[in-house]
Amino acid sequence: MNKRQARVFAIVSTAIASVAFLGLTLDSHRQFDKLTNANAITDQVTRGKDVWHNNNCINCHTLFGEGAYYAPDLTKITQLRGEAYLRAYLKDPAKFYDENKHRRLMPRQNLSDADITGLIAFLDWVSKVDNQGWPPRPLLVTGATFPGTDRNASQPPRGEAAGAGAAAATEDPVALGEAVFRSAVPACTACHSTAPGVNMAGPSLAGLASRTQALLASSEYHGHAKDLAGYIRESVLTPSAHIVPGAMYSADGKSFMPATYPSALKPEQLDHLVAYLSTLK
C-alpha cells in the first residue's frame, strides 16, 4: 500500500467510523425516553432527585455502578427492600445498625415525610430503568462472609449461572430450593444470611429449624403454623402473621418482608424453598 492508498484508507475508515458513531448516538437518543421510563417521571420523582443531590447521597452511594463505593449501590434497592423498610430506615438509620459494630452507620438526614416519599419514588424510578444488567449485581455492604470463604454473605456464589443450571438439571428438592433462595425476585440472599449471627435486613437463617421448633412451642409465637414447613410457608406468604422482634425487621405491626412472593413463586418453587430452608439446622 503506497502513501496515497494509505491516506485514502484512513480517510474512508474515519468517515465510516464517524457515520457509525453518529448513527448509534442518534439511535441511543431515540430510545432514551423508552429505556429510562421518561413517562414515569412524576413531580415526586423529580423532588426525590433533588433530595438525592441536595443531600449528596452520591458521596457514599452509587447508582448504576457510578458514584462512591463507601456504601451500597442503590440501583435496585426498592426491589430489594421495599417502601416500608426504606421509609423506616430513612427516618432513623440508627435503629438498623450499630455504628461500633458495622462502622458504616448512615447519618440521620432529618428528611421530611414528603422528602422521603420523593426519594423513594426517585429510587423506584431508577430501579425500573433498563440498565441492561449493569451493574451485574447490587453492592450490598454487610461485612459478612460465608463460613470458610471470602465471599460476602449478600452476594450469590461465583458461577451462579452455572450453579442454577446444575440445580435445574437435578431432581433434588434441596438443591432446587437453594437455587430459588438465590434467584427469587427479590433474592432471599438480599436480606438474609445463612451464616450464624449475621443479621442483615432480615434475621440470619442459620439454625432456622431448631429455632422454629422452640418458637412454635412457646407463647411468643402468634401465627398459625403447626410445624417447621408450615412456619416457613407462613413467613414467605404472609410475613406479618408473626413479627420477629427487632426494630429493623418491622414497623407498625407489619413485617418488612416483601409481600410479593405469593405471586412471584410457583407452588413447586415454594415447595423446594421449604425443603432447602428446613435443612438449616
UniProtKB/TrEMBL annotation:
Transmembrane segments: 6-26
Keyword Phosphoprotein: no
Region (Disordered): 145-166
Database matches in PROSITE patterns: CYTC
Cited Gene3D superfamilies: Cytochrome c-like domain
InterPro entries, per database record: Cyt_c-like_dom, Cyt_c-like_dom_sf, Cytochrome_c550/c551-like
Chain segments annotated as coiled-coil in the UniProt record: none
Keyword tags: Electron transport, Heme, Iron, Membrane, Metal-binding, Transmembrane, Transmembrane helix, Transport
Domain Cytochrome c: 43-127, 172-281
Gene Ontology MF, one: heme binding
Keyword Nucleotide-binding: no
Domain of life: Bacteria
Name of the protein this chain belongs to: C-type cytochrome
